[in-house]
Amino acid sequence: MAASTKAVSLFRRTLTLSPPRGPPRALGRLRGGGRRVQQRGATAAPPAPPPAAPRLQPPPCTPLCPQDSLGRGLRACYRYLNQTSRSFAAVIQALDGELRHAVCIFYLVLRALDTIEDDMTISLDVKVPMLHEFHSYLYQPEWKYMESKEKDRQVLEDFPTISMEFRNLSKVYQDVISDICHKMGVGMAEFLEKKVDSQHEWDKYCHYVAGLVGIGLSRLFSASELEDPIVGQDTELANSMGLFLQKTNIIRDYLEDQLEGREFWPREVWSRYAKKLSDLAKPENIDMAVQCLNELITNALHHVPDVLTYLSRLKNQSVFNFCAIPQVMAIATLAACYNNKQVFRGVVKIRKGQAVTLMMDATNIQAVKAIMYQYVEEIYQKIPGTDPSSNKTQQVIASIRAMSLPGGPMASRHHYSPIYLSCAMLLAALSWQYLSTISKATEEYVQAGEN
Fold first, then answer.
1. In this structure, what DSSP letter does residue 67 have?
2. What is the C-alpha separation between 11 and 85, in angstroms, rounded?
3. What is the pLDDT of residue 193?
4. Which end of the chain is more exposed for a tag (fewer CB within 10 A), N or C?
5. Residue 35 and residue 6: Cα distance in Å, rounded?
6. 3-state secondary structure of 316
7. Which parts of the chain have pLDDT scores under 70?
């Protein structure tokens, strides 16, 4: 079965505590959504107390974008953002200055691209050329697509508004968005009918649907001059940011993807434990299934050192919050999933109180290091002595520990002001309020559909 993509992971489902049971959305994985295949024709050890928190450059305490100061086109774009992004609309709108608008448009452009890819009513003969050429539509003022049946089709039907606001951005932002859109469209087309066989192809797939988002965001951060040029230039670290999130969601969503007819676990790994990926859900195969799960989690953990290095370079508070919160959610999710049979039986989710604590705490690099230390220790305590991947898991945890302990290799020269810490907490509260509201609305919608 060919894999179909789950793009724009950095924007959406990363903060979702329990994925909705309704039709999955591709932009939701890091998002994580993905679609059916289209055919042609233990208790954590407490971390060492972190040293004094590093100071980042605080933005003005304006957690949400003031809508009354925007033109009609941008107001429409932010309306679409709030309608389609679920988790990250509030965090995007907390970014500073013109970066906020650039990231909003970046999200909507990729959301529109993904809606094309996600629409199973569009034949491959039509869809593949559209994916390849989608970046060119940004410069065609009248282009729109009115034939989509997807839930978020408004971003295609009113694409002239989105593309107009894209063209109103500074050229440096336009160049980044257009380039990433082009590369992602090509990658989506490649994986429409292609299986994720090897671990190399798994990395490549995750690069197309999430790593490119991390690279694009990093280039936008640097283009805004809120971050140093190295943030946008070091594409390897930016790619790892996306891969860590994407792999986490793919691992967590094994059962949901199976029920929807999707497969994203790499054959190279699961074939060592079962004849078919779906066999891992059978009760008689649960021991082998958990070993396969642990091997994939160990693979994902290899990205954590890059994540910590990337976050240590950030100096703007709003950018740091935007990047750090999904990463700590991901490590908490992996800790919950590790050696957990429930991954193959139902939904593994972060507790709401735990999520709020993470959002409030992840406001500086030392705090993030302490969080990472706590959750890898939790994983370490659960490593079975008989697990085939146990040695590799212990090794990668040792490398994360070395970077996470006080006095580790990443020292930051910045420190927070106490006033901004309260603003960060306010941002977390507002983000959580938004997340809870959308989650409740989604549950009501699903219940109404079931009735």
1. G
2. 7
3. 82
4. C
5. 8
6. strand
7. 1-68, 86-87, 406-451
Report pLDDT digits (tens) over 304-329.
999 999 999 999 999 999 999 999 99
The pLDDT value recorded for residue 319 is 97
**Residue 57, SS3 per DSSP:** strand
Cα–Cα distance measured from residue 236 to residue 173, given in angstroms and rounded to the nearest whole number: 20
Q: Please report the pLDDT score of residue 408 as a whole number.
A: 52
Q: Which amino acid is at 334?
A: L
49 CB burial (10 A radius; 0-12, 13-18, 19+)? exposed
Q: Which residues are known catalytic residues? A: 205, 252, 262, 322
**Alpha-carbon gap, residue 190 to 4, rounded angstroms:** 9
Residue type, 179: D
Using the CB atoms, write b or e for 185-201: b if 16+ within 10 Å.
bebbbebbbeebeeeeb
3-state secondary structure of 325: helix
Distance CA 149, CA 126 (A): 15
Which pLDDT score, from 0 to 100, does residue 18 have?
34
- Separation CA 387–CA 262 (nearest Å): 27
What span, in angstroms and rounded, lies between the C-alpha atoms of 173 and 342? 43
DSSP per-residue string spanning 137-189: GGG-TT-------STTTHHHHTHHHHHHHHHHS-HHHHHHHHHHHHHHHHHHH
